[in-house]
Amino acid sequence: MSNDLTSTTARLLAAYQTAVLAKDAAALMRLYDPAVCVFDTWGVWSYDGAAAWQRAVEAWFLSLGSEKVKLSFAEVRSWGTPEAAMLCATVTYATVSASGEPLRSMQNRLSWALKTSGHVLRIVHEHTSAPVGFEDMKAILQRKAPG
């Protein structure tokens, strides 16, 4: 992995965190290619195109009310070039009250396919997931420590 790709993906992750914390749908959508395909964890099989994904993002932000979401990324791995790359990570979504008190959190697995569009590396495919327990068929939203 090149230093260019590492710094480019670090900026992309930071911009994603900032946009989500600010509940700024426009800023978040600038990270996506207009033809993005999103496989989200919640409720809908897929979103085809930025317009469909933007409606889902706006609904998510609206549903938060005065709460905010602080994101953190762990186990980030990326491959490719600054023109076309893949990234995967574990994402923790931590909801905080308007006064900054922690309320709840969950984790998802994240994969991005990225390509350069308009001289910027953008998300062309996003896939979030959570494993499902064999016994109860419920999503596992907190990663257990290995061992």
Report what the structure shows.
With 147 residues, this protein is of the alpha+beta class. The protein has a single domain (3-129), classed as Nuclear Transport Factor 2, Chain: A, CATH 3.10.450. Helices cover 26% and strands 42% of the residues. The protein has three helices and six strands, in the order ααββαββββ. It has a six-stranded mixed β-sheet with strand order 2-1-6-5-4-3, covered by helices on one side. The longest helix has 19 residues, at 3-21. It starts with a helix and ends in an 18-residue tail after the last strand. The model has no long low-confidence stretch (mean pLDDT 93).
Offer a quick outline of the entry.
The protein is an alpha+beta fold and 147 residues long. The protein has three helices and six strands, in the order H-H-E-E-H-E-E-E-E. Strands 2-1-6-5-4-3 form a six-stranded mixed beta sheet, with helices on one face.
List keywords for this structure.
alpha+beta, six-stranded mixed β-sheet, Nuclear Transport Factor 2, Chain: A, 147 residues
* Mean residue pLDDT: 93
- Strand share of the residues? 35-45%
CATH class placement = Alpha Beta
Shape verdict: globular
The span between the termini is 29 Å
* Whole-number tally of structural domains: 1
- Main beta sheet strand tally, sense and closure: 6 strands, mixed
Q: Cα-atom Rg, whole angstroms?
A: 15 Å
Task: Give the arrangement of secondary structure elements.
Elements: H1 3-21, H2 25-29, E1 32-39, E2 47-48, H3 50-63, E3 68-80, E4 84-96, E5 102-117, E6 120-129
Parallel strand pairs: 1-6
Antiparallel strand pairs: 1-2, 3-4, 4-5, 5-6
